[in-house]
Amino acid sequence: MKKFLTVFALLAVCLGAFAQNTGKDVLKDLEEKPLDEKASKKAKPEKEFDLFEIKALARMGYGWHLMDGTEFKGGFAKGNTEFFMNITEFDLTPVKWLTLSLGLDVKWDWYTPTKDYGFAMSGDDLVLGTTAAGMDNYKSTLNTAAFTFPLGLTFRIGSIAAVTAGAELAVNLPKNALIKDTYKIGTKSYTSTEPAGSIPQWGWNAYARVTFGDLIGLYARYYPQQPLIPTAPFGVTTVGLVLELF
Amino acid sequence: MRRLFLVIIAALLAAASAYAGSDGFLKGKVLRIDKETVAEVGSEGSPISISLPVPGLSLGGSAKLSLLDVELALKQAAKDDDIAMIYFNYDNFSAPTSACEEIRRYIREFSEAGKPVVAYGCSLGNGPYYMASAADRIFLNPKGSGSLNGLASQQYFLKDLLDTLGVEVKLIRHGKFKSAGEMYIRNSMSPENRQQYQDILEATWSTMVEQMAASRGIEASQLREWISNLELGTADTWMDKGLIDGLKYKDEMEDYICHLFGTTEPDAVKRVNLKEYVKKVKKGSGKKVAVLYADGEISRDGNEIAGEKFAAQIAKIRKDESIKAVVFRVNSPGGEVVAADIIRREMELLCKEKPVVASYSSYAASGGYWISVGCNKIFCDNTTLTGSIGVFGMVPNVSKAASKVLKVNFETVKSDPHAGAGGIFTGLDAEEEAWYQKEIEDIYTNFLNVVAAGRDMTPEKVDDIAQGRVWAGKDALKIGLVDETGSLLDAIDYIAKEAGLSKYKIVVAPEKQKGFGMNKDKKEKPLVHVQDMLSQPGFRAMAIMPFMTVDPENPFAL
User: Fold this and answer.
1) Residue B525: CB partners within 8 Å, gap ≥ 6?
2) Per-residue model confidence as pLDDT tens digits over B224-274
3) Which one of B20, B262, B270 has the shortest CB-CB distance to A40?
4) CA distances from A222 to A133, A153, B105, B193 (A)
5) Which alpha helices (DSSP H) does B80-187 contain, by range?
């Protein structure tokens, strides 16, 4: 009997705690509650999200390709960069901490070797070799462009940070891929451009992005396929900075 | 076993401490009700508003929220985690009386759901305080003022003027309380008319006073005493009586609201206007429940409830298989008998095929009652005006006035003795008047029979409570003219249950007025449209409520 009464009393306390407060009760508590001056000044409103949103120019980023191997002219390139800009993005936000997005970006890549090469002509073929200061040398850069379609899932941690992960389909523009050759002979420089050869039409990569305060962040891409030489045994990792514009 | 018990109790306590009241400041948005106009049927308004040099007419104009949308929004907001509180500016709010009654209730329910409601303004009066008293906290500008005076109705009488001009008006009616038209034949109120207005005003005002007093935790009689003794005026008098909670300037109100959200930065507090929030209102999914609006005067071919056109709308709903139940929302003082009966007949056919409930707004009187009395159930508000079961006809004769004032004389040639009877230049002779009286009596008997059939009463019982008398909703409930007091949403919930719908989508008919519609100001409602009468020869039987200067849609004008 004693145990029963004890349990009953405890349950009554719990039920009382569960009892609904009215708006008036809530106001009474809040009016008497002191403000933490420091915290109160830092308080910022959370960003608003609609269920469905279309954005334009949502973000842009600048990144560095981390590539291994020799230079791309007949080999692989090092010290390469990319710049991308979002054109449009469709966002579906069923709850304020989760967004599914599909975007259309445009991306430019610049591949450039890390050093100059000595050269010699063997018939019509250009033979590269080491060079030294004062000697004739050769350098080439490759510029490519692509439209990409990133499909990603974003998790938001309040208004502090957002983490996005997804996959991206790239549609390269082979006709826009040009190699720019620069020959330095004596004191004069000569440049010429030539098509880059076969750049794969399609490509894809996995990407991840972390942004802070809806403003700035870091991103990374992993291309399982070498963008320039699809048969290469390893992919390319790109890391960079991203700026949220929208 | 003992250990298990203790573990369960500990778990319950832990859960209770997580739910027991609010530990922190408010999170979410403020729902602002500010500068809103609520009408029975909303309108989208237009970006351009042009006032014409004709009183009461404008092109375009600002949007009006529909009462249905507002009620759904408030109900949704009470459960919406994104909405933390309501901020209500009572200065700029406009709505008809019964709409105020319904909105007030949903504001109270919002508060009872544990979310605060704060009201602020610069002046208080009947209407503003009635609405503000729904809030948990009422603030007033320190230099603000106002009074609660009660409701008044002022009528004017034209008999002497018409006699001077030589205009003769024959009022043919049945119902000692059917006072529509009295203004043309009397110089003062009849005792019956005075009594019915007194009862209506008392019923309406006592409802409002009781609700205001209850919200403030005082006796209604105490509040009436203060009102009678003119004890309310400046802001301090309101404070002293405990009718408001504080005096604040606008910037102090901002600080107060910010404090509730734990911040000193106004920008940190997100707000959403009711007008915006209403766009997010979910009207459900699945089978349809239609809300059919009868808003305005009933006539054969007018702009408001045009008999044939409206009947066609009802037929469309009847034939629409996706609509499983109907709420007939009536906001009409009545109108032409023929038009009302055309609508009644179509409603009768609808009631045979689908469950239909009537929901009364500011008024559903006379013809407005005629068209809806056959519904399965009738809901109304305490402040609704209904009844007015009576009929009248009016025939003016301006031939003497034309002769006297304009020096125009008329002579009529007839093929038969009573040709041209009832024309504005011929009037009625004794025999014709007797004939018209018989017509009115027959129509009145029809009216009694219609009501008797709809309310399951005998015609004699109906006659006792009819006689053209207008009743306030709470009194109409007592005498069996309506079934229940409740809001539009109550009516929708009820009929959905009757139709066996656990999930339903609310659709509206007819669609709300859009864009550059001609917005006729509904403030003034004359007994009859004298201009219409003069333009139409012959006799028109009217079942319409009498005119009240204190507009039942907005009694707070005085």
Assistant:
1) B297, B333, B547, B548, B551
2) 999 999 999 999 999 999 999 999 999 999 999 999 999 888 888 999 999
3) B262
4) 37, 17, 59, 87
5) 97-112, 126-132, 159-165, 182-185
CB pair distance less than 8 Å for A14 and B136:
no
Q: Which CATH fold topology does A52-244 show? A: Porin (2.40.160)
Determine, for residues A10 and B110 on separate chains, whether the beta-carbon distance falls below 8 Å.
no
DSSP string, B337-397: HHHHHHHHHHHHHHHHHS-EEEEEEEEEETHHHHTTTTSSEEEE-TT-EEE---EEEEEEE
Query: Nearest by CB to B270, which of A3, A31, A45?
Result: A45
Size of interface A-B (CB pairs under 8 A): 100
- The minimal CB distance from B112 to the residues A14, A22, A46 is found for A22
Q: Determine the 3-state secondary structure of B188 from DSSP.
A: coil
Residues from chain A contacting residue B22 (CB–CB below 8 Å): 21, 26, 29-30
Residue A214 to chain B, least CA–CA distance (Å): 16
**Pairwise CA distance, residues A246 & A99, whole Å:** 15
> Residue A10: pLDDT above 70?
no
Residue B27 has a CB neighbour count (10 Å cut-off) of 12
Residue A202 has pLDDT above 50, yes or no: yes
Residue in chain B nearest A48 by alpha carbon = B270
Q: How far apart are CA A101 and CA A49, in angstroms?
A: 13
Domain ranges of chain A: 1-43, 52-244
Smallest CA–CA distance from B85 into chain A, residue: A23
B229 near A CB under 8 A: no
Residue-level pLDDT at A40? 63
* Rounded average pLDDT over A79-89: 87
| B135: pLDDT strictly greater than 80 | yes
pLDDT of residue A227: 56
Q: What is the pLDDT of residues A104-113, one digit of tens each?
A: 999 988 877 6
pTM exceeding the 0.80 threshold for the entire prediction: no
| In contact, B542 and B326? CB cutoff 8 Å | no
pLDDT digits (tens, 9 = 90+) for B3-35: 666 666 555 554 444 443 344 889 999 999 987
Are A3 and B5 an interchain contact pair (Cβ–Cβ within 8 Å)? Answer: yes
Instruction: Kindly determine whether residue B15 and residue A14, on different chains, have CB atoms separated by under 8 Å.
Output: yes
Q: From the list A10, A37, A44, which residue is nearest B9 (CB)? A: A10
Residue numbers in B near A26 (CB within 8 A): 21-22, 26, 114-116
Q: Which one, of B219, B78, B23, B215, lies nearest residue B136 by Cα?
A: B215
Q: Rounded to 5, what percent of chain B is helix, strand, coil?
A: 40, 25, 35
Active-site amino acid positions of B:
178, 366
